[in-house]
Design a protein that fits this description.
The chain has helices at residues 20-42, 47-59, 104-114, 122-131, 145-154, 234-239, 242-253, 257-271, and strands at 3-11, 80-86, 91-98, 119-121, 181-186, 192-198, 219-221, 226-232, 276-282, 287-291, 295-302, 307-312. With 313 residues, it is an alpha+beta fold. The strands form 2 sheets. It has an 8-stranded mixed beta sheet. Strands 7-8-9-10 form a 4-stranded antiparallel beta sheet, covered by helices on one side.
Length: 313
């Protein structure tokens, strides 16, 4: 069985805060990304290529906090993070704090395949992007009025805003939900891959890095167990090594994907106040989408005929 699961962020996502138009836009955006990646799997393509195809589409969509839709930092610029992992080889590539890169996931793939390293950051990652011929875009490409308005409302304070949980921003952001994107897949050969891409937190300072690009925290894949991509309050996912913990529970305790994800999301993360969720696939093509927040933009499609696109709890 081959399967693809995706997420577009988690947080306080309530139906009463959403306009019909925006809800429709999100449902269509999720379906478009899902279908792009699933087409790769259907044609016998690899899990790694399927998740790349999926995430590129989400990075190009203003609705999500990744790529083009990345939020503003304290300095009023976009700094993006991304990671990818191949469960067959345990190869991984990650970047953080990159600027002007149209598709950070493509840069993470280049790091994995062509750099002899796993994790590049800041100017060095950008230099590598130029060397590899990765497509760059001017600052204007990443500008959107509602992201700017959101940042303007808190830029003179020490507040910051997580994926979809907006502190003192409820009114301004009433119908503007957004978030980190991720994809996990199991292909026709039973190979697993996972990837995550994000613009981080609005108004983030000091070059803050969340869980998304950290292998084992926000992103992890291993053919023996599972592929996981997380979204939510990154600090807590780092402290619990959330993605790898799911794999460990499966490998050492013999738990199923669903059981392992449930323990990490509803017990371990909640015990330290960690809000968010994750998507996962195992090597049999089973998928799970688990979150402890009010909602998570999510979807999955499988060769057994399953096809789900959802937003709310």
């Amino acid at each position: 069985m081959f399967t693809l699961a995706i997420h577009g962020g988690a947080g306080t996502i309530l139906k009463q805060d959403m306009t019909a138009e925006l809800e429709d836009a999100y449902m269509k955006a999720l379906a478009e990304a899902l279908n792009a990646g699933y087409a790769v799997l259907e044609e016998g393509g690899s899990a790694i290529n399927a998740i790349k195809a999926t995430i590129v589409i989400m990075e190009d969509n203003m609705l999500f906090n990744a790529g083009r839709g990345a939020v503003f930092t304290k300095k009023g610029v976009q700094e993006m993070d991304a990671a990818v992992m191949d469960g067959k080889t345990l190869g991984a590539g990650a970047v953080s704090g990159v600027r002007n890169v149209r598709n950070p996931i493509e840069l993470a793939m280049e790091v994995m395949r062509n750099s002899n390293h796993v994790f590049l950051s800041g100017k060095g990652a950008n230099d590598f992007a130029i060397k590899q011929g990765i497509k760059l875009e001017p600052d204007e490409y990443f500008f959107s009025q509602f992201r700017y308005d959101q940042w303007k409302a808190i830029r003179d304070s020490d507040n910051y805003s997580l994926d979809h949980t907006h502190q003192r921003l409820e009114e301004l952001m009433k119908d503007k939900k957004f978030g980190t994107v991720g994809a996990v897949a199991c292909d026709q050969n039973g190979n697993i891959a996972a990837a995550t891409s994000t613009g981080g937190m609005t108004n983030k300072k000091y070059g803050r890095i969340g869980d998304s690009p950290i292998i084992g925290c926000g992103t992890y894949a291993n053919n023996k167990t599972c592929g996981i991509s997380c979204t939510g309050h990154g600090e807590m996912f780092i402290r619990t090594v959330a993605a790898y913990d799911v794999s460990c529970l499966m490998e050492y305790k013999g738990l199923s994907l669903q059981e392992a994800m449930h323990i990490v999301v509803h017990e371990k993360l909640l015990s330290i106040g960690g809000e968010g969720g994750m998507i996962g696939v195992d090597n049999a093509g089973n998928a799970a989408m688990v979150f402890n927040s009010q909602g998570m933009y999510r979807a999955y499609k499988s060769s057994d005929g399953s096809n789900v696109v959802a937003i709310y709890k």
